[in-house]
Amino acid sequence: MKVEQIIDELKAAPAAVRQLDFAIAKSLGWRRVGTIEEADGNQEETRSTVWFDRHGNRQSKVPRFTESIQAAFDFVHLVFPNSTGGVSWESGMAHAKVGESLVQAATPAIALCLAVLSEFQRMRQTQDVSDV
């Protein structure tokens, strides 16, 4: 999924969406590898998915970027380690700012994710930035 598509989906999301967490991870360079493992004490095979981060390190799971404020905050600092910004919320709406991008979304975590990708998009349009 392209960054533009993720942005559109985040704007429309009424709550956390696990598929968007996966799309965000992929935008960070994570990759998914399906494996087949035998179940303990059983002859049946089970399928599991293994994720590797951009450095090739195996990860047990993709963070819940759109659900957890901490995971969203970590996303901010992965993409913009020296950035400033903030997040606020009231019933039914959240606002976040990263760099020069100010956005609103359904939840604080989604707003932070949206602000990161919006700022990345803004910078890509004004500079030659190719990867999140």
Describe the overall structure.
With 132 residues, the chain is an alpha+beta fold. The chain has one domain: 2-Layer Sandwich (Bacillus phage protein), CATH 3.30.2120. Helix content is 38%, strand content 27%. The protein has 4 helices and 6 strands. Strands 1-2-3 form a 3-stranded antiparallel beta sheet, with no helix packed on it. The chain has a 3-stranded antiparallel beta sheet with strand order 4-5-6. A hairpin with a 5-residue loop joins strand 2 and strand 3 (58-59). Helix 1 runs antiparallel to helix 4. The longest helix is centred in the C-terminal third of the chain and has 19 residues, at 108-126. The radius of gyration is 16 Å and the shape is elongated. The two termini are 13 Å apart.
N-to-C CA distance = 13 Å
Number of strands: 6
The CATH class is Alpha Beta
Number of domains: 1
CATH topology: Bacillus phage protein
Order of helix and strand elements from N to C terminus: HHEEEHEEEH
Percent in helix: 25-40%
Report on the biggest sheet: 3 strands, antiparallel
Mean pLDDT: 89
Strand order of the largest sheet: 1-2-3
Strand content: 25-35%
Tell me the structural class: alpha+beta
Q: Topology, pairings included?
A:
Layout: H1 3-12, H2 18-27, E1 31-38, E2 45-52, E3 58-59, H3 69-79, E4 85-90, E5 93-98, E6 101-105, H4 108-126
Antiparallel strand pairs: 1-2, 2-3, 4-5, 5-6
